[in-house]
Design a protein that fits this description.
Order of helices and strands: HH
Structural class: mainly alpha
Radius of gyration: 20 Å
Distance between the termini: 39 Å
Largest sheet: none
Number of strands: 0
Shape: elongated
Number of helices: 2
Strand content: under 5%
Length: 56
């Protein structure tokens, strides 16, 4: 009834590693400021540059 999934022990990790926490200072101040209800939600050029230059 249920398909058995076989994992290749050599190529796939048993568990995925925990997400690496980002170093402090990677978030922009604009992202930390609360937005006002009804405010324009468009990203500013500074927010776009900060997003594109952040490590993925």
């Amino acid at each position: 009834m249920f398909a058995t999934v076989h994992r290749d022990e050599d190529t796939e990790p048993a568990e995925y590693p925990e997400a690496v926490p980002r170093p402090s200072g990677t978030r922009t101040e604009a992202a930390e400021t609360p937005r006002v209800v009804g405010e324009d939600r468009s990203a500013t050029p500074a927010e776009i540059v900060a997003f594109l230059s952040s490590p993925m």
